[in-house]
């Protein structure tokens, strides 16, 4: 799966969380926001590791 599809999935999870928050489903929306944040950070760190920048060694 390339980066474009990962970004689409992360965006869809975020929008689903936003819709859940508006409709009052606070526990579900919190979980979806956390999932989107973690997925976004994992993708960002993976891109940085692939380019060789910001290593923690």
Short description, anyone?
The chain is mainly α and 57 residues long. Helices cover 82% and strands 0% of the residues. The protein is elongated, with a radius of gyration of 14 Å.
Explain this structure.
This protein is mostly helical and 57 residues long. Helices cover 82% and strands 0% of the residues. The protein is built from two helices and no strands. Helix 1 packs antiparallel against helix 2 (26-51). The radius of gyration is 14 Å and the shape is elongated. The mean pLDDT is 81.
- Outline, from the CA principal axes? elongated
Largest sheet: none
Task: Please give the count of helices.
Answer: 2
Number of strands: 0
β-strand percent reads under 5%
Which radius of gyration do the C-alpha atoms yield?
14 Å
Low-confidence stretches: none
Work out the helicity level: over 70%
How are helices and strands ordered from N to C? HH
Terminal Cα span = 28 Å
Class by SSE composition:
mainly alpha
Nearest-integer average pLDDT: 81
